[in-house]
Automatic annotation (TrEMBL):
One Pfam match: Aldo_ket_red
Keyword Oxidoreductase tagged: yes
SUPFAM superfamilies in UniProt: NAD(P)-linked oxidoreductase
Transmembrane residue ranges: none
CDD domains registered for this protein in UniProt: AKR_AKR11C1 (cd19086)
Gene3D superfamilies xref list: NADP-dependent oxidoreductase domain
Protein name: Aldo/keto reductase
Length: 327
């Protein structure tokens, strides 16, 4: 395992870490036994950082992390998120009392004395610009309930604001071959300012695994079924904002990236890791096989300058104009 600095926190995190949305819920059927085995396999391979949220299975993924990291709290770092259990547009959701309640509930589920990284979970930009929530987070930091804080953002504009105008230690952003916009300005600025970068949805909700066809059907409780067009939350969070059939067709044009790299999954993760500004990438998983496959990206060849240019042109000409939502 390779480790990278998480901004200016002093924490070194495994460059492939894992997100726990899929084992909490909203990605189809879950099996806690399989989830716990997969978490153990990840830690055995050197993974020391996991990202979760209080709304993943209504706290279920936090409960699972508490079980699997018991006795390892000083070695395994956890980031969790808050605000989406309430009305994200209501300023009271970000008040001192409410955020403290969210924080203490997560601490109880995680069975920890402090949260390593506490993140605002994709709030409206207006809330970020108002700024009061950052005062709340500073207070929680002084109280020792959180060690560092950051923001999971939807757009590059929001990311630039957080990096330039707040004391956040990290931002979490969507970045993958289908969502290359952060590369030009956000990534280098975060590096310059010492702000950590967590990359979520690196496989574009599975499109970049190359395993889907236009006939693929997702389970009813899988957000890839009920949020394909943004019915439940931001349309850009599912399939990188691409309409599913188009995303499948575009993924076929990317099959070449797997050559010499085992498969598209490992290649897509490798492309992200080839950016030194990145602190870690946090793919999801539901079983040991998926954990091992994702970790395989650590040993496959990096992309050449010619390959990177080819992917930039592909994004500009074939993808960019078809991404839905503000990003």
């Amino acid at each position: 395992m390779n480790y990278r600095q998480l901004g200016n926190t002093g924490i070194k995190v495994s460059e492939i870490s894992f997100g726990t949305w899929a084992i909490g819920g909203s990605w189809g059927k879950v099996n806690d036994g399989e989830s716990l085995k997969a978490l153990e396999a990840a830690m055995d391979a050197g993974v020391n950082f996991f990202d979760t949220a209080d709304v993943y299975g209504e706290g279920h993924s936090e409960d699972l992390l508490a079980k699997v990291t018991k006795g390892k709290e000083d070695k395994i770092h956890i980031a969790t998120k808050f605000c989406r259990a309430g009305d994200i547009y209501d300023p009271q959701t970000y008040s001192h009392d409410q955020v403290r309640d969210y924080c203490e509930a997560s601490l109880k589920r995680l069975n920890r004395e402090a949260i390593d990284l506490y993140q605002i979970h994709c709030p409206p930009f207006e809330i970020l610009k108002q700024g009061e929530v950052f005062t709340v987070l500073e207070d929680l930091k002084k109280e020792g309930k959180i060690r560092h804080y950051g923001v999971s953002v939807e757009t590059v504009e929001e990311g630039l604001f957080v990096v330039n105008e707040t004391k956040s230690s990290a931002i979490q952003v969507i970045f993958n071959i289908f969502r290359q916009k952060p590369e030009k300005e956000l990534l280098p600025l975060a590096k310059e300012k010492g702000v950590g970068l967590l990359i979520r949805l690196p496989l574009a909700s599975g499109l970049l695994t190359g395993k889907f066809t236009k006939d693929t059907v997702f389970e009813g409780d899988d957000h890839r079924n009920f949020n394909q067009n943004g019915e439940a939350f931001n349309v850009g969070e599912t399939f990188a904002g691409l309409e599913f059939d188009r995303g499948v067709r575009l993924s076929r044009e990317l099959e070449w990236i797997a050559e010499g790299r085992g498969n598209m999954t490992r290649a897509a993760l490798r492309w992200i890791l080839d950016h030194p500004e990145i602190s870690c990438v946090i793919p999801g998983f539901r079983n040991v096989r998926q954990v091992e496959d994702n970790l395989g990206a650590l040993t496959v060849p990096s992309f050449s300058a010619e390959e990177r240019k080819r992917l930039q042109v592909f994004y500009k000409n074939e993808v960019h104009d078809f991404i839905r939502g503000v990003y």
